[in-house]
């Protein structure tokens, strides 16, 4: 029987601003040379002020999102309290590490706000978590990192952060064959909650 190799590609980014956290992705899903979808969802809201981006196998990523949402709901019901970003990271890392012998093929970024401020983490398929000011995952991440490294500063505000996120995704779409699709999706998390940036604004920045 002939081996079938499925290749996936993505670009997702996350960054901490002085007044918000921003996560973003493109929307192309591939299987080898086939474009499986031009409008694939890669940004998920998992709690009021916490979002997650996915890169890797779509089925695995969606399964992880479902598990994480369910566990967060249980946490909130049993403790009668909102979950912190750090607790979410610990929960997600435990889920991934418990499947380390048959891992979920997903690289994740988690961003959010809680009583301790704004946070961005990247998490590998077996639960290794790294906190940073900005991060990128997926096949287009080298191109995205080049833009992020050049444009990021500790005091970046929300508006400039949105522009930087869009520019980094756009750079990856132009140079990485496995990144693209119809949309760039940008979510902004601040002290009030999560909102998505209007597509017209994104398209204007991406010109």
What characteristics describe this protein?
single chain; alpha+beta; Glutamine Phosphoribosylpyrophosphate, subunit 1, domain 1; 5-stranded antiparallel beta sheet; globular
Structure description:
This protein has helices at 58-79, 85-97, 141-151, 158-175, 199-205; strands spanning 12-16, 21-26, 29-31, 34-37, 43-47, 50-56, 106-114, 117-123, 129-131, 134-137, 184-190, 193-196. It contains five helices and twelve strands. Strand 7 and strand 8 form a beta hairpin. It is globular, with a radius of gyration of 16 Å. The protein has a single domain (12-205), classed as Aminohydrolase, N-terminal nucleophile (Ntn) domain (Glutamine Phosphoribosylpyrophosphate, subunit 1, domain 1, 4-Layer Sandwich). The model is unreliable at 1-7 (pLDDT under 50). Strands 10-1-2-11-12 form a five-stranded antiparallel beta sheet, with helices on one face. Strands 5-6-7-8-9 form a five-stranded antiparallel beta sheet. The protein has 207 residues and is an alpha+beta fold.
